[in-house]
Every structure is written in C-alpha cells, then in structure tokens.
TrEMBL record:
Principal localisation: secreted
Residue ranges of domain Fibronectin type-III in the record: 167-317, 438-547
Keyword line: Glycoprotein, Neurogenesis, Repeat, Secreted, Signal
Protein name as it appears in the record: Protein NDNF
InterPro entries the UniProt entry points to: FN3_dom, FN3_sf, Ig-like_fold, NDNF, NDNF_C, NDNF_Fn(III)_1, NDNF_N
GO terms assigned for molecular function: heparin binding
Transmembrane residue ranges: none
The keyword RNA-binding is assigned to this record: no
Any one Gene Ontology BP term: extracellular matrix organization
Length: 561
C-alpha cells in the first residue's frame, strides 16, 4: 500500500509525465473496454466498473484528481449484500521512498479508522458522494462485505454535470398500482426526464418478486443468476495490483510488452462461484412505455414490484420507488349439496374447481363415492371434517369406499385439468348395493373382427360384467377422412342414448356372466353400404337409468366382395 502511495506521490509532485485526460484516445479506448480495469485498483474517470468482494476481505480502489477545485462524484452500487465503504483523500509524504515506514501496525490502524474520511456508508442502498469542489490528490475508496461474497459496481467522475450517466427520476418517483385483480396487476409511473427532456434513449424494466423490493438492477440480476463475468472470482490477495500505470498511458519496458498486456490480460487464479437456484422473481424490459400489466399471478398472494429506468447506450440504471400489492382472492364458489344415492352432474371450467358437500345420516359406517369423468381426467380430493382422506386423478369411472365416522361431514373438491373443461357425474351413498351408475369392466373398448368384415356387415365384441345390464349399440356413417380430433369430440361418455337419432339405433340386449373370463358378447351389424366408414357406440344402462358409453370405434366395410 505504502509503495503505491509513494510512487503516486512522486508522479504527482514531479509531473514527470502528464496524466492523461478523458479526451485522450488511449484512455477512451480503455474506458470502452472495461476488461482493462477488471482486476485493476484504478477507477477510470467516467466509466462504471464491476467487481467482486469476498466476505471480510476489504478491497481498495484509487482515483486521481489532477487539479484543485475539481468536482467529484463517486457512486457505489451494492448488488446482493450490504456494503461498508469509505472515501478518503490520501496524504502524500513530502519525501518519496520505496521503503516502508517500519511501523506496519500503526499504518493498518490508521487505514482502518475513518477520522479523515470524506464520506462513509453502511447498507445496501445505492449511495453517492458528491463534492462541487475537491482538492487534487489521490483518493482511496475502501469497500468491505461482512455478510457474504458479493458483487458491486463503482462509478467515479470529475465531470458529473456533463456526464449524467444515470437516468434521472421524475419529481414523483413512485410506482403506482392502478388496477388490481386476482391474477393481474397494472402498474404506472411518471416518465424519466432523461427521455422526455434530454431525449436520450432509455428503456424501463419491470421486476416482480414474492420476497422483497430491490434497490438496484444489479441486485435483481445477481438474484436471478450468477453473472458469467464473475464465474471465475479472483482469490483474496491475488486481485490487488497497486497502480498499474500502463492503464494511465505510461509505457512498460518495451512496447511489445504493452501490446501484449493490453490485448491479452494475464489470467488470474480463481475459484468457481456456485450457480444459485433460480429465485421466485421475474424481470421484463418493456421499452419506453410507462404503464404495464403483470399477468399470470396467483390469487391472494403478495407481490413486490420495482421499475428501473436504464440508459440504452450505457446500460446504467436508476430505481424508481417500488411498491407492493396483494392480488384479490378467488371468488368463493357455491358448495353443491350431494344427496345420498342420487347422481349429480358437475361441470368444471378449464383449470377451475368445484366444491361439493355430503352430509350422510349420523350413524353411517361407510361412504362410497362413484365418480364418472365424461371427458379428460379430473382430480378429486375428499376431506372428512377437514382431514384429507383421498386425493387422486380420475379417468373414466372410479369407485372409492371410505370408512365412516358418526356425524361426519365430507367436502369434495374437483379440479379440472389444463387441456379443457371437464364434465362428470358423481354419486355419494352409504348403501353401495343400490347404486345408480352401472358397473363397468376395466377394458371398455369395442373390438372389430377384420376377417368377418363383408361389404354389408361388420362383427364386433365388447366386455360385460357379473351384473345384468342393458347394452345398446348405435351406428353412424362418417367420412373416410374421419380423424382423431373428430373422434375425440364424440368421446363424452356421459351423453346417453337419448341424444342419438332413432335411425342410428341397431339393437339393445341384456347381458351378464358370473365368469368374468366369459363376460364377452358379440354382435353382427348388417345393412351397411360397401366401402363406407361407420362410427359405432355401445351404451350400458344401469337400473337407475343412467348410461355410460364405451370407447367409440370406427369400422369400414369391404369395397369389393
């Protein structure tokens, strides 16, 4: 540390070589390529640098002010952890010497104290030191993170009035919630004078989080993912290079070394920063619009909203005053009362839910639920007096038997799927022997015998059960290009034979078998046209009159016989 100060003192006092101004070509080139300052302890005038701090390991940067009465502005942006930082003007000794003072302990105590600090701060706000008139000299910025390893950004300039690197905020920098729904929130804010007055290119970025508000876009990006620029973080003690004067235009021993240094920086030893899990946060940049609707939110959930205005050329940004809001609750749905032994038709919207209540006689021993999903699968949950007893997906017909409890009440929740609306029939009873829905085999397909096809008939078979039920078969002529999408529209198993035309009916018959392996019936459908396609449906009807349809089958007669 002392060697760098002494060397700088000799240069400042002796003026052996004039320090470059920001207008010089080399310095401008170095500012454009921030890689030159990545591992340097020098802060360039008028350019923002990004760097990394290890926990409890201080880091020092230096900034040169060449002339007295010069304006000075230093801005520090913490990213993902609070920082302690202080700015001081170094006292340069009268006599320069490359040797140490011999009292290292005294020097360290002096450096750690802040009696002669120009400014000090502790926290995670974006904080700025501004002086309209500063003496010439060597300024030291010391930063420390006591919580964890962290990223940060620093910007220093001697021309703050003309630079204006950070977009300005309006006189009212608040973000307002103008509309609030169950899944949407509309935000509005006043435009930045940087765009409306100075006509500089800007864009607004909206950040939504369920954790907290953010004070800088740097903090947002650090939360979203580990920055690629810091995947190889320098080790403590190896990233501090006191005053590399090559950055200030001083030649090295030969020009070849200088070209090599500027074009290919020497690699630093480092350790990998572990990628963090993706946080519950979203960022979207929307151009220069100052109103935005956030959608796909969860009902009855608190969210935090931040807006940042960023300079499109420099990517430097300023934070508006964020806000928070809780989305509205889901509309309370009416609970449908189920009657013992009665079938209830239920319609559930896409991604929607329906609630049903069953209050059987107080002295019941068992409760049986019959659920018939007419289209796609639905999810059913059954709670008894608030305790979850059942949670399953149901496709087709399912039967659930639960142990009863005196005076118990049952709450049934039916949830639709993402594909589309759901239709179903549900029956709750304490007397399962008197069910209203027919019993069905597990395999409800209709099988067609290809070898038995003729030009005017087809032969099909389907399975039955041990209970005697009524089976009716229907046919309908369809086009040859009848596809799966059309077939799917016919798959509503809850539509009974009463919805079919009388001319489509082939026959009805009763059938059952005590031996399940022999519970199969066949039927030959005659009177068909050669080379035509037909849609066949089989309906089974229970004693209570409710019907269930088997899976539809498309068959085609032979064209030539």
């Amino acid at each position: 540390m002392e060697i760098s100060i002494v060397t700088a003192s000799a240069i400042l006092k002796g003026r052996f070589s004039k320090l470059p101004t920001r207008d010089e070509e080399l310095f401008q080139m170095q500012i454009r390529d921030k890689a030159y300052f990545h591992d340097s302890s020098v802060i360039p005038d008028g350019a923002e640098i990004s760097s990394y701090l290890f926990r409890d390991t201080p880091k020092r940067y230096f900034f040169v002010v060449e002339e007295d009465n010069t304006p000075l502005s230093v801005t520090v942006t913490p990213c993902d952890a609070p920082l302690e930082w202080k700015l001081s003007l170094q006292e340069l000794p009268e006599e320069a010497s490359g040797e140490g003072s011999g009292d290292d302990e005294t020097d360290r105590e002096k450096e750690s104290s802040c009696d002669d600090c120009l400014f000090s701060y502790k926290g995670n706000d974006v904080e700025c030191f501004i002086a309209s008139s500063s003496p010439s000299g060597l300024y030291q910025l010391e930063l420390l993170s006591t919580e964890k390893d962290t990223h940060f950004k620093v910007y220093a300039t001697t021309t703050p009035e003309s630079d204006q690197p950070y977009p300005e905020l309006p006189y009212d920098p608040r973000v307002d919630v103008t509309s609030l729904g169950r899944t949407t929130v509309t935000l509005a804010w006043k435009p930045s004078p940087t765009a409306s007055v100075l006509k500089q290119p800007i864009q607004y970025c909206v950040v939504v989080s369920r954790e907290h508000n953010f004070k800088s876009l740097c903090a947002v990006e650090a939360k979203l993912s580990a920055d690629d620029a810091f995947m190889m973080a320098p080790k403590p003690g190896l990233d501090f290079s006191p005053f590399d004067f090559a950055h200030f235009g001083f030649a090295l021993e030969n020009s070849a070394k200088e070209r090599s240094f500027l074009t290919k920086p020497s690699p630093k030893l480092g350790r990998h920063a572990h990628a963090r899990p993706k946080a519950d946060i979203q960022k979207v940049c929307i151009g220069n619009k100052n109103i935005f609707t956030v959608s796909d939110l969860k009902p009855d959930t608190q969210y935090y909203f931040d807006v940042f205005v960023a300079n499109s050329d420099s990517n430097m940004s300023t934070a508006y005053l964020g806000t928070f809001a809780r989305t509205k609750e889901e509309a309370r749905q009416k609970t449908v009362e189920l009657k013992d032994g009665k079938v209830t038709d239920v319609f559930v919207k896409r991604k929607g839910a329906k609630f049903l209540r069953f209050a059987p006689v107080p002295a019941h021993q068992k409760v049986t639920f019959f659920v018939h999903s007419c289209l796609d699968a639905v999810q059913i949950q059954v709670r008894r007096d608030g305790k979850l007893l059942l949670s399953q997906n149901v496709e087709g017909i399912r039967q659930f038997q639960l142990r009863g409890k005196p005076k118990a009440k049952y709450l049934i929740r039916l949830k639709g799927n993402k594909k589309g609306a759901s239709m179903l029939k549900i029956l709750a009873t304490t007397r399962p022997s008197k069910q209203s829905l027919p019993s069905l085999p597990e395999d409800r397909r209709i099988k067609a015998f290809d070898k038995l096809r003729t030009c005017s008939s087809v032969t099909v078979a389907w399975l039955g059960t041990q209970e005697r039920n009524k089976f009716c078969i229907y046919k309908k002529e369809v086009d040859d290009n009848y596809n799966e999408d059309q077939k799917k529209r016919e798959q509503n198993q809850c539509l009974g034979p009463d919805t079919r035309k009388k001319s489509e009916k082939v026959l009805c018959k009763y059938f059952h078998s005590q031996n399940l392996q022999k519970a199969v019936t066949t039927e030959t459908i005659k009177g068909l046209q050669p080379g035509k396609s037909y849609l066949l449906d089989v309906y089974v009807t229970a004693h209570g009159g409710h019907s269930v349809k088997y899976q539809s089958k498309v068959v085609k007669t032979r064209k030539f016989c």
